[in-house]
Amino acid sequence: MKTYECDVVVVGGGPGGSMAAKYCSLGGLNTIMIEKKAEIGSPLRCAEGVSKKWLEEVGITPDPAWICADMVGAVIRSPSGHTFKLDESKAGSEVGYVLERHLFDKALARQAAEAGAKIMLRTAATGVIKENGKLAGVKARSMGEAIEIRAKAVVAADGFESQLARWAGIDTSLKLNDICSCIQYRMTNIDIDPEYCEFVIGSSVAPGGYLWIFPKGKGAANVGIGVMGTRCKNGEAKTYLDKFVATDPRFRNAQSLEIVGGMVSTCPGLECAVDDNIILVGDAARIIDPITGGGICHACRTGMYAGKVLVEAVSKGDLSKKALMPYEKMWRDRMEDKLYRNWMAKERLAELDDATIDELVKLISGSDIEEVNVYNLLRVIKERFPKVVEGFEELI
Fold it and tell me: What torsion, rounded to 10 degrees, do the Cα atoms 262, 268, 274, 279 define?
């Protein structure tokens, strides 16, 4: 059996994996990143929307090559058609880009390669290697051949399904209400505002979640839906999406060019995302925005944090759980309060009926909010609908 030796093996070639591989390599570590698919970034598993403000934080320079559309603003729509429209003057850096995700992922992988990481495609982890009770690498199949990759540390960047974490003995199970079932069509021949993303909320539209329209230019858009696991049975996410498309006149002549689907975790992260010789990043660690399901930003941040911590740990020759705990502090200091607040908001909003959602949208559309973000929206909601924020008022 062919065996590879390295300092760090990263399992998963998405944004979290590429960022971890990049920062490990920049720190001088011999790094291998494996990806089970034949192409980085394909097939698509994402709505492709990101905010702008975090890119500089993780060292990513916006590039027209992977930016499909630069949004002017967003529209929040209630079930009965009440809208709240916000532009960049109010939303600031929360207004974002719609990506060509496969090109974005390839760009990050290229940066990892340029930093010195070795990338192995069509290489799927099949298990972990343990010696003396400790993780010592991964077993894999590469181009149909069984191999071993022995490493001082492993980064689990294998997304929602994350088998690697479970093989390593870390419980990543989720409650059904912390899972969102999603389906998305890439559609053409639609009559939408190309400069505004749209979010439609309400129990009759997308129970426990929301429906989105992300413009992709020239009459095209990603049109998708996420439905809370406890509210979704027998393919109902598709049923809700099809009903919306069939009844909205903007889609009268629409055609679908692509269909993607999958699951997203919507909890505020694992209790601990490290153990001896292993760090979990992105959705493998359940570090994803519970209210939006957005995870690209979180994957990039956690990948960067993981790389920096591993460089320090390897230099000291200590890959114990204790030595890797600075990673926990990094991501929690930066994101934990917001993730917990948004998780609680997600839970409360899922309980509201359409009439209350209509009132909420009318309330925020008539409020003078200097900068629109989840925090400020919840502050306004707190005054009129205090039960929505009951239990996490101190975070608002």
Answer: 40
Per CATH, the homologous superfamily of domain 2-43+102-173+270-336 is FAD/NAD(P)-binding domain (3.50.50.60)
Residues across the chain? 396
Report the pLDDT value the prediction gives residue 177, as an integer from 0 to 100: 92
The torsion angle over the Cα atoms of residues 255, 218, 237 and 82, rounded to 10 degrees, is: -120
Contacts 24+ apart (CB under 8 A), 85-93: 85/196, 85/365, 86/372, 90/369, 90/370, 90/371, 90/372, 91/371, 91/372, 91/373, 92/53, 92/371, 93/51, 93/52, 93/53
At residue 77, the pLDDT reads 92
Q: Residue 160's closest CA among 248, 53, 245, 281?
A: 281
Global pTM reads 0.93
Identify the pLDDT of residue 159.
93
- Does domain 49-53+67-99+176-265 bear CATH number 3.30.300.30? no
Domain ranges of the chain: 2-43+102-173+270-336, 49-53+67-99+176-265, 346-395
Do 274 and 324 touch, CB atoms closer than 8 A? yes
Tokens of 138: 């991964």
d(CA 238, CA 227): 10
Beta-carbon contacts of 302 under 8 Å, excluding residues fewer than 6 positions away, are 16, 19, 273, 281, 282, 285, 287, 327, 331
Give the span between the Cα atoms of 236 and 243, in whole angstroms: 10
Instruction: Tell me the H-state helices in 228-336.
Output: 236-247, 296-316, 321-331
Expressed in angstroms, the distance from the first to the final Cα of the chain is 56
> What pLDDT is attached to residue 149?
98
Listed as ranges, residues in the chain with pLDDT below 50 are 93
